[in-house]
Design goal:
2 domains; 39% strand; Diaminopimelate Epimerase, Chain A, domain 1; 17-stranded mixed β-sheet; alpha+beta; two-stranded antiparallel sheet; globular; 276 residues
């Protein structure tokens, strides 16, 4: 069964989008992993399957990591899906449904997209953590980093604050922390260098995906945790390896993310040729 796909990215965080609204495509975890493989598949950080949704949302967005596991939220992918649906419908405001809830989105004339990522979840049970603890400073360390703040932005995040991100070996430390015992569902691990009260530098080791050029929910978590620590205000430009996102933690407790959504190319893939 051949299916069309679209390759999109937000600040280099790249996705393969497949449209299953009209017919089921049978994207199993194994098939998602095969599609995401960068040598033998199309290659991406996440596979995004668009499914039909009730009338209260425009689409249901299912997110598969390169290891086949399912993610609860992906801010950069949400912007890409919103841009695609806006082009289809001519409407500038949309609601993207995920397994973690609804994400309202709005497109702008300059091509950027703003997504309401909802309020951060700060309770230890909501992240979740394995035991009751202060989420502002976890008893967790690896190599030169220690004491992260944690929150959930639809998926679990831990944010470490470091003086010099350039010298940190994220590829070595990230996998160890992702699987730390304190995270029963694993976690996305962010490393932040605060450059100014309104500007931070971020790199994220994503659970199930590894080091990516950008992580939208990770950027939201980074700003929230930095503001909670008193290191920044509630609005900042977040510089990631692939570009810049603007994150604002508003007075109503909702976190808004603004950034680009870019189409790279489109094609067709034979799904039946992939592992079931």
């Amino acid at each position: 069964m051949e299916a069309p796909f679209l390759k999109m990215h937000g600040c280099g965080n790249d996705f393969v989008l497949l449209d299953a609204r009209a017919r089921a495509l049978g994207i199993t975890p194994a098939r998602a992993a095969a599609i995401a493989h960068r040598r033998t598949g199309i290659g991406c950080d996440q596979v995004i399957i668009l499914e039909s949704a009730p009338a209260t949302a425009d689409v249901f967005m299912r997110i598969r990591n390169p290891d086949g596991s399912e993610a609860g939220a992906c801010g950069n992918a949400t912007r890409c899906v919103a841009a695609l649906l806006a082009a289809e419908s001519g409407r500038g405001t949309l609601i993207i449904r995920t397994i973690s809830g609804d994400l309202p989105a709005a497109t702008h004339p300059d091509g950027s997209v703003t997504v309401d990522m909802g309020p951060p979840r700060l309770g230890w049970q909501d992240i979740p953590l394995a035991a009751e603890t202060d989420t502002l400073r976890l008893d967790l360390a690896a190599g030169p980093v220690a004491g992260p703040a944690a929150c959930s932005m639809g998926n679990p995040h831990a944010t470490f604050f470091v003086p010099d991100l350039a010298v940190l070996k994220v590829e070595e430390i990230g996998p160890r922390l992702e699987h730390a015992a304190i995270f029963p569902d694993r976690a996305n691990i962010g490393f932040v260098q605060v450059l100014a009260p309104d500007r931070i530098r971020l790199r994220v080791w994503e659970r199930g995906a590894g080091l990516t050029l950008a992580c939208g929910s990770g950027a939201c978590a980074a700003l929230v945790n930095a503001a909670r620590r008193g290191l920044t205000g509630r609005r900042a430009a977040v510089h990631v390896d692939g570009g810049e996102l603007v994150i604002e933690w508003r007075a109503d407790d909702h976190v808004f993310m603004t950034g680009p959504a870019v189409t790279a190319f489109h094609g067709r893939i034979d799904l039946e040729a992939l592992p079931a």
